[in-house]
Amino acid sequence: MYDRIESAGLKGRDFLSTQDWSVDELETLFSLAAQLKADRKAGLPTRILEDKTLYMIFFDSSTRTRNSFETGITQLGGHGIYLSPDRMQISHGENARDTANVLSRYGEAIAIRHCAFGEGNAYLSEVAAHASVPVLSMQCDVYHPCQILADYLTIREKFGDTSGLKLGVAWTSAPNYVRPISVPQSLILMMPRFGIDVTLAYPPEFKLLPEIEAQARLNAEQSGARFEITNRFEDAFEDADVVIPKSWGPLVHTRDHDEGIRLIEAYPSWRCDAAHMALGRDHMIYMHPLPADRGREVTDEVIDGPQSAVYDEAENRLHVQKALMALTM
Amino acid sequence: MYDRIESAGLKGRDFLSTQDWSVDELETLFSLAAQLKADRKAGLPTRILEDKTLYMIFFDSSTRTRNSFETGITQLGGHGIYLSPDRMQISHGENARDTANVLSRYGEAIAIRHCAFGEGNAYLSEVAAHASVPVLSMQCDVYHPCQILADYLTIREKFGDTSGLKLGVAWTSAPNYVRPISVPQSLILMMPRFGIDVTLAYPPEFKLLPEIEAQARLNAEQSGARFEITNRFEDAFEDADVVIPKSWGPLVHTRDHDEGIRLIEAYPSWRCDAAHMALGRDHMIYMHPLPADRGREVTDEVIDGPQSAVYDEAENRLHVQKALMALTM
Amino acid sequence: MYDRIESAGLKGRDFLSTQDWSVDELETLFSLAAQLKADRKAGLPTRILEDKTLYMIFFDSSTRTRNSFETGITQLGGHGIYLSPDRMQISHGENARDTANVLSRYGEAIAIRHCAFGEGNAYLSEVAAHASVPVLSMQCDVYHPCQILADYLTIREKFGDTSGLKLGVAWTSAPNYVRPISVPQSLILMMPRFGIDVTLAYPPEFKLLPEIEAQARLNAEQSGARFEITNRFEDAFEDADVVIPKSWGPLVHTRDHDEGIRLIEAYPSWRCDAAHMALGRDHMIYMHPLPADRGREVTDEVIDGPQSAVYDEAENRLHVQKALMALTM
Question: Please, which residues 44-73 of chain C have a Cβ atom closer than 8 Å to chain A?
């Protein structure tokens, strides 16, 4: 039943960004995810990784990521170990090389979340350079590839063929802390490769990393999809099939936290409500990686309404990550 | 061997209080618990919940509850995930609705401990309202139903037929912090339903929630058991078969912490010693949910003595919770 | 395949120090460890402890110990529960007796790390006195027996017969905190019992517990091995087959933290570099339990060089501990 896993040739592959994987390789993953999802609904066992160990190192807190990975490896017959750097020797100065080498001798994969801007991706890359087992990103400062896999699987489930769909990715204003830019960056990188037209809307101070925006443009050109950036919130909604309004920090503009919060508070009208939803196509769905700041990013009416696909999207984290683990571990 | 589980019809049921379950349903649970206990002693496998996931959200610290649930799901072939709100997005303001919906998409049950007075039960109820998987109480501010299941199984093992037994539930004075009222409340609610006469003894400021005391009275009336409240410590011991002396806070009387501690310290003589034990029947057993404050709640002589059943009681947490999970998940 | 486990007669045995086990018993463990290691490389299942639970109580942080134990019990088909005293009732004053008794009723073994000087071993011993399941040391203030099992397995893999080999155990200067003395103490205790000549080198203020040094001398006399103590760093390297340069605190000399740090900083030249390595035999290997303070304890050139066996040594933690669990649980 899972006999294509071996022949997929992805055993041992790292997954730090979707950009490192070809469209064909990603298609293999989505196809396996769909099969694992169907088998779970049917109550079939899926002990593909029996007694194998996944290390999950979290530099930042998590609900969906931790639980979907740990439940996923459980359903595959293996075991996930939740690790906090503050309870590891990392807090005693152990370097990435030693951590990578030692964990590679014990278990079968190392998953890491490390969102500190300017640090996370560098840490993941250094672990990957030294590990002999696959290193899987659970989100860094630059990428959140597993989230985008789940987003894409959700879109495909709702619409079938994704070619020519319009996805709006819109910045929203959310208080209290400066959120990472990894989600919008990963969205604009991968979605155009699957033929999806992407409109990215943000206030001027909220631009993404120039090299990521450039790569997204290139990806769109190569696939024939459209990719455009705008400073008008509504542009992300108009005639869209899918909209993902989500807050992030002005990290490319300023590293100063207070100035970041001030800029976020300068655009309170960047909030998704029913009027915005009415700008899209009738079948338009609303997605958000969660947790959403209800009232500030989106109204309850929208996120709890009939167009919201947030729980389907969250569920798909489980299925795509099970496919990712089954293929690489 | 476990073929009655399916036909019990409890799959998907929440367990926030014993009051929500009929005596027949509770009997089914006790009977399964006894069978699971016997099978464990015999070394038989009990993989009833293979590769299923139990989420255990702890707002408060734990030894017995966490380890008995996590060991229990392991012995059933499944996996428990220990979750702390401070490491989840709950600390970023995620609401109960989102947590409930998302975890329902991944695993098979959500167990929660949340003892903050005036908050815990409300939180559990809200999660239960939105979850599509069973929500199991690991103690809230109002109820600690799993503890009482274990207590009852222990009493039945010691005495056989429980009808007409006398149980004394006595307040004790224990320093440093204000303990929840969930244990005595759950005791007085459930024990009379199984024909056990209950004497509840506390100083005047330590009364329980009026609606719980009223429900306990009603339960006793319906079953024909006696239920009485007294302000004299010794009343709980005299002619009793079972005594559970246990500290709790004057939460119904005052929410002020310092005033609570002052009131607790006003009754230092409410401590169980050998003289009190001599007031009961010769076969009287001493129980306590642990941790006990040795020296303040009880003398070492009693808790480590021949009448103490505290470790049998603690062990039964494992067996009743395995039955609970097997029936509901 | 694993039919000798039952007949080894070690079921239920505690493991707080290698000194409590005979050489024959330790040989049984090493032989099983080698077999488990070979079976893992061959991809064979080793479900010797199916659905059994190991409690891992960590009073101190850990990378290798936690992950090797938890991965090990996973590969044996069981489950490890990671416990922090600050999240258990231990933080509410629960005593060792109650913790030992309760966990003994639920699972199959209790592993503990507790390195606080003057407290750790006493705590482990008290738990062991009350537990009816085996208590396994994951390092205390006096012993780190699992580390030394891994060290010995590594030496045997590299050299075959270990009789007559020279091992240098050298103190090194490492900043910031006062490291335990359990590793050198466990090394000098066990290695002579397997015929290994040990040279222990430290500055005068860094002597080990007198009773441990005396026992090491006795062990050496009984086996015919040499054991010598010197205050010259180079003595540990000259003509050695194996060298383990590792920092520890002057705990026997002073309990004052600042004075300890001052003494550590008084010997900055006690650092292993290529020149020291050249003093040993050509085939000499470098080992360290990790985490090493790179630059202060050892140069990168040495620890990342061809003579370094640190990752093999770390890996062997997994295999010896799997053997330990399989034999005792």
Answer: 45, 47, 58, 61-64, 66-68, 70-71
